[in-house]
TrEMBL record, chain A:
Domain annotation FAD/NAD(P)-binding: ranges: 2-305
Domain Nitrite/Sulfite reductase ferredoxin-like: 562-623
Name of the protein in its database record: Nitrite reductase (NADH) large subunit
NCBIfam families: nitri_red_nirB, PRK14989.1
InterPro entries (UniProt xref): BFD-like_2Fe2S-bd_dom (IPR007419), BFD-like_2Fe2S-bd_dom_sf (IPR041854), FAD/NAD-bd_sf (IPR036188), FAD/NAD-binding_dom (IPR023753), FAD/NAD-linked_Rdtase_dimer_sf (IPR016156), NasD-like (IPR052034), NiRdtase/SiRdtase_haem-b_fer (IPR005117), Nit/Sulf_reduc_fer-like_dom_sf (IPR036136)
Positions of the BFD-like [2Fe-2S]-binding domain: 427-476
Lineage: Bacteria, Pseudomonadati, Bacteroidota, Cytophagia, Cytophagales
Assigned protein family: Belongs to the nitrite and sulfite reductase 4Fe-4S domain family.
All copies of domain Nitrite/sulphite reductase 4Fe-4S, residue ranges: 634-772
PROSITE patterns for the chain: NIR_SIR
From TrEMBL, chain B:
Keyword Iron found: yes
Signal peptide (UniProt feature, chain positions): none
Domain Rieske residue range list: 20-121
InterPro entries: NasD-like, Rieske-like_NirD, Rieske_2Fe-2S, Rieske_2Fe-2S_sf
Protein name per UniProt: Nitrite reductase (NADH) small subunit
Keywords recorded for this protein, A-Z: 2Fe-2S, Heme, Iron, Iron-sulfur, Metal-binding, Nitrate assimilation, Oxidoreductase
NCBIfam families: nirD_assim_sml
CDD domains attached to this UniProt entry: Rieske_NirD (cd03529)
Length: 836, 125
């Protein structure tokens, strides 16, 4: 057996172990790994997520058990201090020695600390390891306790911005100082840097460019940084993340050839000047460069494993430094040569300051190929562009379509189908998985789903950036084999939501048990129960009371569960219009039950902190005062927001409040695949933000314009124009048709915007169905809505009038006590739950 | 917090010393949970009508330490009866209390007996 010793248990060192552990000749090697940190290798790429995770364990690439199961001796907390090439031995800091046949240096890099006066003062940190983060966190906590909140990061590159995000997550007011005149100087041009700067500064952080730090001032802790241009910056702590330096000290000591500016020289087999010693990752100097990205490090690990096991694989002659990531909440990507400028090249630039998007592609003058590019604010095209670049593929006739989308006609991916990619196209660059490998894993029959493919090929298992493309590949490959990818509800029903909707309707299935008996198996679960509940509600307009146990937990108790298990109560306030009398009732109820009160985004009032048993008492009082359920807990119509409109506003064209109330009253209680929100604006100033809603109505000269399929939230989408200049009745008719059509055909928990995106034919098709009635179902859809409207009942009124239904609000079956475990703490004259 | 969790230890049927009557079968909802109190414990009780099985577990969700599991949705995963916490949909086996999302924390379960229309839960304290 040959002995392999790996020095360094970082991401690349781990990758080496993983690859050797699964190699067919694995049994011929005895593997020992030394890591100087106390933990096994963890994911440094996502280091800044450490603060939001519960524990460091979630960042681990593999557990200690994994090393044990794979017969790898892992020695953490142990540092190698010497290599003796002649006797092939390494020595630890405890003076133990170990013999090797092959030695792999994966010592990585350390943080580059510039030589600034005062850099050793307390309050100065580096950003590299979990221990560094712990130290930063403790110090920040101490500062905050003393009422100090200012942190600064030295370095506006990729790592510096990561560190800045971490400091911000800790609640520090964070500034970034960069020596270069722009952010991420290796990846971005000036305009891209400006865009990123604007985005970051809009979050309250400040960026200082072109600053050369001279001295750090402070006595017990640091107070400020002086720059060479005689300006200075007040700060209570400083985090340095201004580049990396290869950890080559062991190599230097034992006489391996190293670069002038650091790094262990390697050839394309990853061999150092001593053929028994390999170097991989950020310590390796290959082609005169040090590569601080994971993908080249992983490739090096693969080459070293192949070489040691007698294979012939060599390192690619040129290293691709393309990268796509999210920095301080902003998508940033850069690929190929992002800056290239000469006579042979044309740059196409798209800049949208309102949306905060900048895109640049560099194209050969003859339009034949893509040479590189930059994206800030929206990197959704990265995978496509990267594939076009790396495979030198032919570009579309109008290359600007690549970043602008095809304007006019149906939008189509610039790539056409993912299946058009060459088999050699690398889809996952972290794990070096090609399109061919992914497709083969499916056509050979060994994989038949996305998760199978990830498990078997490892594609998309590292940074996850290629996930959309892998998903598409899996879908398209299965499709090409004649296998339709079926989106079933869950393990209990082998049907899609739309199929179940049709079955329930055609067979007049009345309850969940019947549906399970006829078309499902098992007991059901938290996925299929609410789906069926929604279908029953949409077909029969039954309230959440009749089959309470299959309702999602909020619907079951007709209220929104909050942090500590108490509930919030939101009565309906149609169109946001409320009388002073009703407003006072809300105040009185809130006061009586000691509820935290807040105005919601949907123009109503939320009362928080009600205990389960208090809900019926609260609702009794609200209903007596003329309120109804607001369905804030349901996947159902929430609010129709309005601006004040022509009755009061000097600009208003039509009476938006009255129309909003009419619409909200019409669709109240309507249950749907996901929540539904509407808005009505009295003029194009659009104060009701109607285009951020599932349906929005905007007054124009001559009627209402109807927009559909917008939303706010995580992926904001503006609603799209469905029809123009409608009178009230036609607008409602189209809304009826649109809503029922959506309810019938959407997937579970699919809001209108993604529904439209998936709808074949898109908005043009929807216009045909709703406006032109191309399917001839217009009247049917309207009649269906009319029946639902007629059957509406306030489910809270229903609940408090029925003793059987009231049972569910009793905290304990066997006691009349109430839950005494609740703890609230005061906040700004009101209360909040004890924090988690 | 740790103290709260210590209050809940699984009890195997053969180790139950006290069988506490917590109500009649029709006091409990079908295919859903309800909560009962025993000393300082809050215990969630579930009735799965399709197999006429009864289960009991702690009401405390160990993820964020809130008394909410009795209000979670029930169901099964590959035949294992389970409950999903109403706060973040963490799911737990009602047979052995193990976490079905692959996370570390688990819950305590208690044996249930039905005699003459009454529901009894077995405790070891």
């Amino acid at each position: 057996m040959k002995k392999v010793i790996v020095i360094g248990n970082g991401m690349v060192g781990y990758k080496f172990c993983e690859k050797l552990a699964t190699h067919p000749l694995r049994d011929e090697f005895e593997i020992t790994v030394f890591g100087e940190e106390s933990r096994p290798a963890y994911d440094r790429v996502h280091l800044s997520e450490y603060f939001s995770l519960d524990s460091a364990d979630k960042l681990l690439l593999a557990t200690r058990e994994w090393y044990a199961e794979n017969g790898i001796t892992l020695r953490t907390g142990e540092m190698i201090t010497d290599i003796e090439n002649e006797s092939k031995r390494v020595f630890t800091h405890k003076h133990d020695y170990f013999e090797y046949d092959y030695l792999v240096l994966a010592t990585g890099s350390s943080c580059f600390v510039p030589n600034i006066k005062g850099v050793d003062k307390p309050g100065v940190f580096i950003y590299r390891t979990i221990e560094d983060l712990d130290a930063i966190k403790d110090y920040a906590q101490k500062l905050k306790n003393d009422g100090k909140f200012k942190a600064s990061v030295l370095g506006g590159g990729l790592l510096g911005l990561e560190a800045a995000n971490a400091a911000k997550e800790l609640g520090m007011q964070t500034d970034v100082v960069e020596f270069a005149p722009r952010l991420m100087p290796r990846q971005l041009d000036k305009a891209a840097s400006d865009m990123l700067q604007r985005k970051i500064e809009s979050l309250g952080m400040k960026i200082h460019l072109g600053k050369n730090s001279q001295e750090i001032i402070g006595e017990e802790g640091i107070e400020k940084i002086n720059f060479t241009d005689e300006t200075s910056l007040q700060t209570d702590m400083l985090i340095i993340s201004a580049g990396i330096r290869p950890r080559d000290e062991l190599a230097v000591k034992c006489g391996l050839k190293t670069g002038e500016r650091g790094g262990v020289y390697v050839n394309n087999k990853m061999e150092t000047s001593d053929p028994a010693i390999y170097a991989i990752g950020e310590v390796a100097l290959y082609n005169n460069g040090i590569y601080g990205l994971v993908a080249p490090g992983y490739e090096m690990a693969g080459v070293a494993v192949e070489q040691i096991t007698g294979g012939e694989k060599l390192m690619s002659p040129s290293i691709d430094m393309s990268t796509q990531l999210k920095l301080v909440g902003t998508e940033v990507a850069s690929f190929g040569d992002p800056f290239i400028e000469n006579d042979e090249v044309t740059a196409i630039v798209y800049e949208n300051k309102q949306r905060g998007v900048y895109k640049r592609i560099n194209i050969a003058k003859d339009g034949s190929k893509l040479l590189g590019g930059i994206m800030v604010g929206d990197s959704s095209d990265y995978n496509t562009l990267f594939q076009l670049y790396i495979n030198a593929m032919k570009l579309p006739e109008n290359p600007e379509d690549l970043i602008l989308g095809s304007r006019g006609g149906e939008s189509k991916s610039a790539l056409g189908s993912v299946l058009d990619l060459p088999d050699t196209a690398q889809i996952c660059s972290c794990e070096a998985v090609s399109k061919g490998t992914i497709c083969d894993s499916i056509t050979s029959g060994s994989c038949c789903s996305f998760s199978d493919v990830v498990k078997s090929t490892k594609a998309s298992s590292s940074c996850g950036g290629c996930k959309p493309m892998v998903t598409d590949l899996v879908k398209e490959t299965l499709k090409s084999m004649g296998q339709e990818v079926k989106e079933t509800i869950c393990e209990h029903f082998e049907y899609s939501r739309q199929e179940m909707y049709d079955l329930v309707k055609l067979q007049s299935i009345m309850d969940f048990d019947e549906a399970l008996d006829r078309h499902g198996k098992g007991h059901g679960c938290e996925t299929c129960k609410p789906v069926l509940a929604s279908i029953f509600a949409s077909i029969y307009m039954e309230t959440a009371n009749r089959q309470a146990p299959i309702q999602d937990s909020n619907d079951r108790f007709l209220a929104n569960i909050q942090r500590n298990g108490t509930y919030s109560v939101v009565p309906r306030v149609p169109g946001g219009e409320i009388t002073p009398e009703k407003l006072m009732v809300l105040g009185q109820v809130a006061k009586k039950y000691d509820l935290y009160t807040k105005i919601t985004g949907g123009q109503r009032i939320d009362l928080f902190g009600a205990q389960l048993h208090e809900l019926p008492m609260i609702w009794k009082e609200l209903i007596d005062a003329g309120f109804e359920s607001g369905h804030a807990y349901g996947k159902s119509l929430r609010t129709v927001k309005s601006c004040v409109g022509s009755t009061w506003c000097r600009y208003g064209l039509h009476d938006s409040v009255s129309f909003a109330i009419r619409i909200e009253e019409r669709y109240k209680g309507l249950r749907s695949p996901h929540k539904l929100k509407g808005g009505v604006s009295g003029c194009i100033r659009e104060c009701a933000e109607a285009r951020g809603k599932d349906f929005g109505v905007i007054a124009v000269e001559g009627g209402w314009n109807l927009f559909v399929c917008g939303n706010g939230g995580a992926t904001p989408k503006h609603a799209i124009l469905l029809a123009e200049k409608l009178d009230d009745e036609t607008c409602i008719k189209y809304l009826d048709r649109f809503l029922v059509y959506y309810i019938r055909t959407a997937a579970p928990l699919q809001r209108t915007a993604p529904w439209l995106e998936k709808l074949e034919g898109g908005i043009d098709y929807l216009k045909k169905v709703v406006v032109e009635d191309s399917l001839g179902i217009g009247e049917e859809l309207e009649a269906e809505m009319e029946e639902l409207v007629q059957r509406y009942a306030c489910e809270w009124k229903e609940a408090i009038e029925d003793p059987q239904m009231m049972k569910r609000f009793k905290p304990f079956v066997n006691s009349d006590e109430t839950d005494d475990s609740l703890v609230f703490v005061p906040m700004r004259d009101q209360k909040m739950p004890r924090p988690w | 917090m740790e103290e709260l969790l210590k209050n809940y230890q699984s009890v195997a049927e053969e180790h139950a010393i006290h069988w506490i009557k917590v109500g009649q079968t029709n006091d409990f909802p079908a295919n859903a949970g309800a909560c009962v109190k025993y000393k300082s414990k809050q215990v969630a009780v579930y009735h799965f009508t399709r197999t006429n099985s009864w289960y009991a577990c702690q009401n405390l969700c160990p993820h964020k330490m809130e008394m909410v599991l009795s209000r979670g949705m029930t169901g099964d995963s590959q035949g294992i009866p389970k409950v999903a916490c109403p706060l973040h949909k963490k799911t737990f086996s009602l047979e052995n209390g193990s976490n079905l999302n692959g996370e570390e924390y688990s819950i305590a379960t208690y044996p249930v007996r039905i005699q003459e229309g009454n529901v009894y839960i077995g405790f070891a304290d």
